[in-house]
Amino acid sequence: MTKLCLEGIEKSYIKNNSSKNKSEDDFRIQIDELLINEGEFFGIVGPSGCGKTTLLKIVAGLQEINKGEVIIDGNNITKISAENRNISMVFQQPLLFPHMTVEENVTFGLKMKKIDKTERKKRAKQILESVGLNGYLYRYPSELSGGQKQRVAIARAIAYKPEVLLMDEPFSSLDPALREDMRNLILKLHSKYKMTTIFVTHDREDAFTLFDRMAIMRGGEILQIGSPKEIYENPLTKYIAGFMGYKNIFQGHINVNEFVGKNVKFKLPNQNYLKNKSIYGYIVIPSESLEVNLVEKNNQNIKKMHQIESKDYYAFLGILEEVNYNQGLLYLKIKYNSEEIFITQKNKFSEDLKIGQNILVEYMPEKIHFIEKKVRG
């Protein structure tokens, strides 16, 4: 069941009124349609300045639009003010009232809604226990750490029992260890309260850890919607592939059984439908789908090197340029002709690899993705 629907959304504004060339500073959000399901954990992902936060503010009623409709549960709320929308928002900074206790901060919105005092206190105690702050009711923000302050802000948003919970990069000011703790907390809370949640971030780790589905944004537009797995495995454009973490992106053309780029060549399974045609565009190769082996002067490896020319053995020779070890994984950079190839694999070597040594790289052709492709012929 659809919980939130954005239709034909347009919002234009000028970033810099003093600029002589207005076209350089004008910015526009344009969303033809965005549907978010009941109870879904939905992410809006993209770089700074792409319109993520503006879109969140449009949903919250904090930003007027030039055109379009915001619909919740079939009800058009476009012209309803922010305070009258049953929507809560957690910002990058906790924005707690310094003169109020934790309990008073959490119950502030409930008080404004004239919720009974006994009920307010009951909700505050329950929610604070859910966010791991049992016993912090009477502390003030100055007595809390950054992570604890953000937990209070989240508790305040949940206590309101909103129809939609909005989160605008709430982990951005936290260190990596705290970010991981907060991700786990948010997942636990979402599982418990089943609230429709829209979470804005530029962090890929947030995306892969948290979201059921997500939208990739750039320049005020949505480029692709899907689960993190779907988008990672089938990026529609070179930009999306790069944003999702791909480093092995090459431009060239595909004939019947090979991809040929400027400085690289990869064999592919025979594609008979391309008998008199070529595909031009980009390929992306996941770094984790490649595997390196040492090239040594023994019969086995010499035989393997000769196999590279056979049609059923997918490999190429390169030179090791960089190697880093982290928690059982090797992160390698290989020079293939004049191109750089990045590889992530489990460490299977008994001795340290040496920069400059010859490397045999095996790849799985079925893991190669074709993007922005055009068939000619």
- Indicate the proportion of strand residues: 35-45%
Taken from the alpha-carbon principal axes, the silhouette is elongated
Tell me the number of helical segments per DSSP (H or I, 4 or more residues long): 10
Radius of gyration in whole Å, from Cα? 26 Å
Strand order of the largest sheet: 6-7-8-3-9-10
The tally of strands reads 20
What string, H for helix and E for strand, traces the elements in order? EHEEHEEEHHHEHEHEEHHEEEEEHEEEEE
**What would the average pLDDT be, to the nearest integer?**
89
What kind of oligomer do you see?
A: single chain
- Flag low-confidence runs: none
What share of residues is helical? 25-40%
**How would you sum up the major sheet?**
6 strands, mixed
Structural class: alpha+beta
The end-to-end distance, rounded to whole angstroms, is 45 Å
